[in-house]
Amino acid sequence: MTKLHVFDMDGTILEGSACVHLSDHLGRLEEISVIEEGWGRGEVGHIEFYQLCQPLWVDLCAEDIATVFEKSPWRKNVERVFKDIAERGEFSAVVTLSPLFFAEMLLQWGVTSAHGAPIGPGEEVDPELVLTPDHKVPIVRRLMEEHGVDEFSCVAYGDSSSDIPLFETFSNTVAVNGSDTLKGLATKHYEGDDIWEAYQLGRSLIGG
Fold it and tell me: Which of 162, 140, 139, 163 lies closest to 151 in space, CA to CA?
């Protein structure tokens, strides 16, 4: 049976968050910082988060997105990991609450599929399109069915509260610079900036 590797993006394979990096590029760091702090305290919900972010991104174009992607502080060896997974005939996925228009840039690095909120820059927010942590589990289950992978051949990598449902559901999990709560749920945990090393821990859970 083949394998499936599921990666969170913000804080896991990317230092910081895509929303912050995009806003910073447009000179809106102060505004996004306030929004992120409110979200972190639970004062701003997932839908409201996007409603507050969209005015900041109204001028964001494809060139801006590509520039931010290239300049963002990715963990070491992200592309190497995706390529290694593909060369083994396995599958990889990035599942994030951040915008799909940013996450799908990872397709050029070889990730099999990218999943995020399908909301374009500056668009009116459709609540049905906003992802929450609870959406991650059905997305992964659908990918498992699509690729013919069972739970024991799937490993999830994450860092924070958005990954809790995945870590509570699946048995093969790797916390990457994880919160204390996530470490308590994780099968393995990694501290550092090289995603290849975290990936090796994940491989050890599914037979190398």
Answer: 140
